[in-house]
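Good morning C.,

I know you're traveling, so I'll keep this short. The sequence:
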Amino acid sequence: MTSSNSDRPVFNSDWDQYIDGWDGVTGQAPAVLTVYLQAHSSGFTSVAQSVSLENSVTIQPVTDAESGSRRGLREASTVDRSPLTTGRVVHDLSVGGNVPMGQLPTGTDNVVWRVIERIAEAYRFVMSPSLALPRVDVKITKRIPLSAGLGSKAADVAAAIVAADRFFGYHFIVRAMGFSAPGGTEASSVGSLASDVLRRIAREECPDEYAAIELALEGGTSLINLDHDAQPGSDVTTQRTPLLARGPLWWVITLPVVTSPEMAMPWAAPSPTHEEQAAQSHNNPSVQHYDDEDEDADETGAGLCHRVVERLAVQRAEMASGKRSQYRVGNIEDIERALVSGDPTDVAKTMGNDLYPAATSVVPSLRRVIQAGTRAGALGTIVAQQGPACAMLCADEDHARDVQAELAGSGVVRTARIAPSHRPGSQSGAHLVSDEDKKSP
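The tokens, ready to paste straight into the viewer:
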């Protein structure tokens, strides 16, 4: 296939007819919950599974009128107002859902923007460098709490991959334009780019979270090994191995009510005053305080993770010197066997997180959440990676609803959401949720 400027009026006409009354494509991808994490000097070994709490990415075509009207008049007069372009394809990106306004970038520094541009360039590479592709508006809807240890960014990337591949490869190239897909097929269940091309884009854009992106793409449960050199800028090596896990397991995902008026995390609820804190402590003597605990950390998710890892190093040095009691997770083989059995009681006994002591030291309110989970009757509670999300394991759906109701009235959690785990297979990973298969013009 070849493309030139003389072809573009035909392309515009065909595309305008195809998108008339069309709402575009929406991809959705799940949160990733780590149920076991063993930290070592150069990284960690973990077991994680996808759960039914999702982010979505919607890609909509820009019309001729929109491409000019959404810019200022000065800019609109100097740019190509065609709905097709041989340059950058993303026209506008917005973020909504479970995130405060302005918390995430909406320009080229947003990873979803970059992934969509990379996928467009990949189609030009395999078809024609001058291929004119549709301009698009992108909307990210976040239901997974941001910076909470649940893989919200990985879900964004996975949802963007399935949506962008479907939009450009199937709807534009195959259906609207009538060309053969790069893979040689006239139709595709998702898109047309090879899986290794899409995964390479994800790895290059998010090396630290590549294993989580893979898990969000495929769903199910996986063993993840991450190793990195301690030097800045070094490569990160990740290896993911799918695991058999019966289920679903029923989780209640929670976020804490914070106790510091300086808290500025995106998941934070308005904090109580010092007088309210004193009253809470007086009325609830079960709340414990520890010598090494901070006020709840005032920082981004990356900053929180860094502080938790630093605190872990300090605590392990204290364990080695005998100044602190030992804390280590159990053998990874035990959690693997428990997941195969599907018995939630066995899973609760064998799950664990080496970051737990450090996370509860940096964010002390996590201790109150864990205590509330115990009082609510959860089989067990685990901090999601570095936190601040916690997950309470329940026996079944009815039990999960009971635990959720108890937690909602506890006063120590901001949210409590039921999120069962996925079995490997259809729609357990990233998938399309809005995708009208329009007829060719």
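Safe travels,
E.
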